[in-house]
C-alpha cells in the first residue's frame, strides 16, 4: 500500500516538473478571489446597514440581556472611556446573506482550485484553470452547503461519527470536478464508497503536514505561498491513487 510519504513524493515530483510557479500563481488567484468577496461583502454590509459600528456600551445595552440569559455575568454599562470604542456588529439578516454568498462563492473557488491541482497530476495544468469553477456556480455551491450539513448531522451523534464522515466525504470536490453532471448526493455517496477502508491513510497524510503548517506559522504566513499549493497537489495525488485502486478493483 502506498504510504503518505510516497504520495507526497509524487506531488513533489509533479511540482518540480515545471508546475511550481503555476501552482503558486493559481493559489494566489484562489486566495485573492476569496479576499475580494470578503471585501465586497463588508462594503455592501456597511452601505446597506447590515454591518453597523456600535460602541461597546451600546452593544452591552442591546445584547447584554441575551448573554445574561445563558448564564454570563455582564454589566449593563461599561466605564465611560469604553464608550469611545466602536466595534462592527453584523445584523442577523446580513449574517444569513453572508452565509449564502460565502458558501456558494467558496464552492466555486474550491472547484477551480481542485480542477487545477488535478490537472497538475495529469500534466495539463494552467493557473487560469482556477476560474473554471464559475461555470459550475450552483452545482458547486450546493455541494459546499450539503457536505458540511451532513457532517454536522453526523457530529450531533458523537465526535467519532463526525470524524468518520469528515474523511468519508473528502473526495467529493475531486469527484465533482471530474463528473460535473453528477448530483451532490451522488458525489458524496461515491466519495463514501471509495474512502471505505482508506480513511486512516488520509488521516495519516493530514498528520504528515504538521511540520509544514508550523513553518507557515513561524514565517507569519509567507511560507504558505508554497506550502498550500504543495498540500493541495498532494491531495490530488491521493485522489489519483484512489482512482487507480478503484479501477483495479473493478
Structure overview:
It is globular, with a radius of gyration of 22 Å. It is mainly alpha-helical and 250 residues long. It has a two-stranded antiparallel ribbon. The chain has helices spanning 4-48, 56-69, 92-121, 137-157, 159-168, 172-178, 184-194, 199-207, 210-218, 224-249; strands spanning 51-55, 86-90. It has two domains: 4-48 and 91-249, no CATH class; 51-90, no CATH class.
Gist of the model:
The protein is built from 10 helices and 2 strands. The model has no long low-confidence stretch (mean pLDDT 87). The chain has 250 residues and is mainly alpha-helical.
What is the end-to-end distance?
18 Å
User: How many distinct domains?
Assistant: 2
Number of distinct beta strands = 2
Q: How much is the radius of gyration in Å? A: 22 Å
Strand content: under 5%
Spatial strand order of the main sheet: 1-2
The percent of residues in helical segments reads over 70%
Shape annotation? globular
Question: Whole-number average pLDDT?
Answer: 87
Q: Which stretches of 5+ consecutive residues score pLDDT under 50?
A: none
Q: Tell me about the biggest sheet?
A: 2 strands, antiparallel
Structural class determined from secondary elements = mainly alpha
Summarize the helix and strand pattern as letters: HEHEHHHHHHHH
* Count, helices: 10
Describe the secondary structure blueprint for this structure:
Blueprint: H1 4-48, E1 51-55, H2 56-69, E2 86-90, H3 92-121, H4 137-157, H5 159-168, H6 172-178, H7 184-194, H8 199-207, H9 210-218, H10 224-249
Antiparallel strand pairs: 1-2
Helix pairs in contact: 1-3, 1-8, 1-10, 3-4, 3-6, 3-10, 4-5, 6-7
